[in-house]
From TrEMBL:
NCBIfam families: PRK11798.2-5 (NF008769). This is Stringent starvation protein B. One of its GO terms (cellular component) is cytosol. It comes from Janthinobacterium psychrotolerans. GO terms for biological process: positive regulation of protein catabolic process. InterPro entries: SspB, SspB-like_sf. It holds the Pfam family SspB. It comes from the Bacteria.
Length: 160
């Protein structure tokens, strides 16, 4: 699915972004990680040597002018989407696999971790594109009926 959405983005003239849950198996610049997550521009112009296979996404990219090698296990991908319109697909990252030797487990990282939300029947879509960080992801409902404030940074919202 990652390759298909990546190709759709590039064929449509959109910029593909990858939202990633960071753990010990990922190789990303840690200074850009916010709340255990990072958003990566994986467009042709932003990457070098992009390779997507069934196990991982690998490429080189510049951060602050310095070329860095990026390695993201497919299990850690939370979403791939077009930056311009937010269309794409979200995934539940596989939790509890901090083993650097990479054998998947079915148990959560810790017993006190909240269970993941039930998957939607038709798969979630993305709206309100985040830019550069994922720290605003899925804020809880406020309870009042105030309309959202204009301006500020956009958020990623799951629609079921």
């Amino acid at each position: 699915m990652l390759r298909a959405i990546y190709e759709w983005c590039t064929d449509s003239g959109y910029t593909p972004y990858l939202a990633v849950k960071v753990d010990s198996r990922t190789t990303v610049p840690m200074e850009y990680v916010k709340k255990g997550e990072i958003v990566l521009n994986i467009s042709f112009g932003a990457t070098s040597g992009l390779k997507m296979d069934n196990d991982a996404v690998r490429f080189h990219a510049r951060f602050g002018g310095i070329s860095r090698e990026i390695y993201v296990p497919v299990d850690n991908v939370m979403a791939i989407y077009a930056n311009e319109n937010g269309q794409g697909m979200a995934f539940e990252p596989v939790l509890g696999n901090d083993d650097p030797h990479g054998q998947p487990t079915d148990s959560p990282a810790s017993a006190d971790a909240p269970p993941p939300p039930a998957p939607a029947a038709t798969g979630p879509t993305l709206s309100s594109v985040p830019t550069g960080t994922t720290e605003q992801r899925e804020s809880p409902p406020s309870g009042d009926d105030e309309p959202p404030k204009k301006g500020g940074r956009p958020t990623l919202t799951r629609i079921k």
